[in-house]
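Good morning,

Attaching, inline, the backbone tokens for the sequence recovery test we're adding to the shared suite. The designed sequence is right after.
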């Protein structure tokens, strides 16, 4: 995973240092857990963002990197008690639960831009690592686990240039998958990104 992280930093740095064509975007990410993730947090969350850079290696093909951070939260009531064991004594704990999920993807990406005179639709894939932090709070008791897992993120989107400008609006739909490890279930998140982009 450390190699993936270093490769992402290298690719982003390459795009910064190059005079060739590149694309940059800062996005507001709206997220929704699906599958096993929705069992823990199922509502829509609006606290997320990402920064991405793409370097054109051919007319329509880019390589680059993405770093993001999304915080998912849900307050849940009427759940069954949770079995716990403290100092060899077993018991149950119940009450209102506060579910938190912090997701930080660090991905190497590749995108293909379709030929178009005005808007610029694209499809892409990101591969790399995802830091996942999961917390469940019940009263004064907190259940916590975290891990750095393998992640994959296919996406499709469109860049809409503003008139007579190299800047524009970036819209994308992404699906982030993170592998399961230890006490963490596999991660499945849909993300709708609204951002401001720049293509030179």
């Amino acid at each position: 995973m450390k190699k993936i992280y270093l490769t992402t930093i290298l690719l982003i740095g390459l795009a910064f240092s190059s005079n060739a064509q590149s694309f940059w975007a800062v996005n507001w990410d709206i997220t929704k857990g699906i599958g096993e993730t929705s069992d823990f947090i199922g509502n829509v969350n609006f606290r997320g963002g990402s920064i991405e850079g793409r370097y054109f290696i051919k007319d329509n093909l880019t390589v680059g990197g993405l770093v993001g951070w999304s915080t998912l939260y849900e307050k849940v009531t009427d759940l069954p008690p949770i079995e716990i064991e403290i100092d060899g004594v077993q018991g149950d704990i119940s009450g209102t639960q506060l579910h938190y999920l912090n997701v930080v993807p660090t991905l190497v990406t590749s995108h293909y831009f379709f030929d178009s005179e005005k808007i610029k639709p694209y499809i892409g894939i990101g591969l790399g690592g995802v830091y996942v932090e999961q917390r469940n709070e019940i009263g004064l008791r907190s259940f916590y686990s975290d891990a750095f897992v393998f992640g994959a993120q296919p996406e499709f989107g469109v860049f809409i240039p503003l008139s007579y400008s190299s800047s524009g609006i970036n819209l994308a739909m992404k699906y982030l998958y993170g592998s399961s490890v230890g006490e963490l279930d596999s991660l499945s998140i849909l993300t709708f990104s609204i951002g401001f982009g720049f293509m030179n």
